[in-house]
Amino acid sequence: MADLNYLTITRAHQLLVDKEISATELTNFYIAKIRQYDPKIQAVLTLCESQALEQAKKVDDKISQGLPLGLLEGIPYSAKDMFMTKGIRTTAGSKILQDYIPPYSSTAIEKLDRAGAILLAKVNQDEFAHGASTENSAYHVTHNPWNMDYVPGGSSGGSAAAVAADYGIFSLGTDTGGSIRQPASYCGVTGLKPTYGLVSRYGVVAMASSFDCIGPITRTASDAQAVLGVIAGLDSRDSTTISSNISSGLEPLAKGIKATLFDAGSSSGAVMAMVGSLGSNNSDIKFSKSTKADQLFANQLVLAIYYILVPSEISSNLERYDGVRYGSRSERAGNLEESYSKTRGEFFGPEVKRRTIIGAYALSAGYYDAYYKKAMQARSLIIKSLDEIFLDADILVGPTTLEPAFRLGSKSDPVVMYQTDLLTVFANLAGLPAVSIPCGIDADTGLPLGLQIIGQQGQDSKVLAVADALQMATNWHTLVGELKL
């Protein structure tokens, strides 16, 4: 039988079409990997074995009948536990939803089901996506497959770790301030945050509704395009969605693309080396430096803006978990008011409580103008600054994070933890597409480093085409396939 380790979507599809493997064999291969390695990595919350094998049999029946096979048919994947999955437990990494089994699936899951993809597992995350390390999960801490003493990033750390550990060929994550790109960088895989509204948020547990984006974590930019082509598009159940002409295949890279570089953190050297590799291959991409971009991405005030607006939306979205309508309820409450307070006190973790309190404070009558309104005005200024940079550039290129993955437990100060988002929040504040791809290995830790490509709204395919060109010129994205778990 063919080597099934670290397959791309295209390679797996070809093996299925050529009948070198069956969908059932492929699915069982990944289930066995999860059973073997997840006791130490702990990326999985719920293994969907019976449902996955049932879906695989349907694909095999289609193959045996000689019917044409779609690109994602028979392709096993995982999904962050923020996604509603009909009949399969969905917890959002929180104890308050520990017994919740949704009666419906999110739009993204529905679309993947129709495309024939096989959901293998629901994977770990920071509780309600509040975190940057997956240490805030109410269930267990996920470990980075490159080194078990380090975090996989967050909040989609389970998704990134699952792809890096080869628990399926791709994973679905959510990105509110970098929660796909940062863990993708830390785990040496590819992570795409699409244009805001390109992928429906219907059926995905809300964190901050004007920031949240749904996207894939994959092996390559080409795989990300394949998944995006299926999950993108209008949805009548989500009024923020936009129409899409995204295809499942990458278009040829346009000539004369202008790329502006921004410099920040210890990963900048690796970024410049990777950019240099593309340049030496006679690329049509023209790279240039920008002082304005350097200054913008070094501005720490952006985190203050982000961490006023996002907790404000969090406090609003989490109001529904009150012990009456949604989730678990405290049995120690003597009246309705105690039910509210004790339920949230018992079932919410420290970071969820922290962000809810910050948000409620920023939205309160006496402080709304001073905090939330000012932050919204500052958000507009950041968008304007990015627009000005894009007058001279098609894309922005720089590090995904300031540093490689950090040791478990090393960032106990929440303010220090929040700083890991510095380079990624810009794309969410402005609703821009952005992708992180591997670009090197840190000399001190041996952990992967990430390069981030940010484009203008609606230019997702262009961003991925540039990422693909960089990956074609280098081999950093293939190193994850050499991991010894």
Notes on the structure:
- This protein is of the alpha/beta class and 485 residues long.
- The protein has helices at residues 9-17, 23-41, 49-64, 107-114, 157-164, 181-187, 221-231, 268-279, 291-297, 301-317, 336-347, 350-363, 369-389, 414-418, 425-430, 460-473, and strands spanning 44-47, 76-80, 118-123, 170-175, 190-193, 213-218, 258-261, 286-289, 395-399, 434-441, 448-455.
- An 11-stranded mixed beta sheet has the order 1-3-2-4-6-5-10-11-9-7-8, with helices on both faces.
- Helix 2 packs antiparallel against helix 3, helix 10 (301-317) packs across helix 12 and helix 10 (301-317) packs across helix 13 (369-389).
- The radius of gyration is 21 Å and the shape is globular.
- The mean pLDDT is 95.
Give a quick set of tags describing it:
485 residues, alpha/beta, 16 helices, 38% helix, globular
Portion of residues in beta strands equals 5-15%
| Strands side by side in the biggest sheet | 1-3-2-4-6-5-10-11-9-7-8
Give the helices and strands as they follow along the chain: HHEHEHEHEHEEHEHEHHHHHEHHEEH
Unreliable sequence segments? none
Helix percentage = 25-40%
- Give me the Rg, rounded: 21 Å
Q: How many beta strands in the DSSP annotation?
A: 11
Helical run tally:
16
The overall average pLDDT, rounded, is: 95
Which structural class should the secondary elements be placed in? alpha/beta
Distance from N terminus to C terminus (CA atoms, Å) equals: 22 Å
Largest sheet: 11 strands, mixed
Give the overall form.
Answer: globular
